[in-house]
Specification:
The chain is mainly beta. About 5% of the residues lie in helices and about 50% in strands. The strands form two sheets. Strands 3-4-5-8-7-6 form a six-stranded antiparallel beta barrel. A two-stranded antiparallel sheet has the order 1-2. It is globular.
Length: about 140
């Protein structure tokens, strides 16, 4: 790494690795996740996985499909917090596959919302994104 001179002595230049250039901090959150493709031209592909990390602009998760970069997808993530301490939430995000690695996909989030889920009801397996209650919009 290159050395730079700063007031107060020589110090290392800031790290400009990929992780440091991200515009949003990533948080290592592991949650159950369901995903599905959103293409109208091809048959929908759906699967389950686990989040590896989350930021306000993306999600890295395990996947049992190797989707192409640019594929439009929707993910539904079991959120760890409850609304009013009694209503489970799902984070539903839509966007495009930004990159793929063995068994992992990175989603670049373009749109998201929180949806309610009644207690004791697992993530829907047949209708990803359906909700048992009203949509909860994030505060701006």
């Amino acid at each position: 790494m290159a050395e730079s001179s700063f007031p107060g002595g020589n110090r290392r230049a800031p790290d400009t690795s990929l992780a440091e250039r991200r515009r949003s901090s990533r948080f290592p959150i592991e949650r159950e996740l369901r995903y599905k493709t959103l293409s109208q031209r091809a048959e929908a592909v759906s699967g389950i996985g686990k989040t590896l990390n989350i930021s306000s602009s993306g999600v890295l998760f395990t996947a049992n499909h190797d989707l192409a970069v640019g594929t439009r997808i929707e993910v539904s993530i079991s959120w760890p917090a409850q609304l009013n301490e009694r209503c489970l939430l799902n984070l539903v995000a839509r966007g495009r596959v930004a990159r793929r690695e063995q068994g992992q996909l990175a989603l670049q989030i373009q749109q998201y919302e929180f949806r309610t889920q009644s207690l004791g009801t697992p993530l829907p397996s047949s209708a990803l994104g359906s909700a048992d209650g009203p949509t909860v919009q994030p505060k701006a």
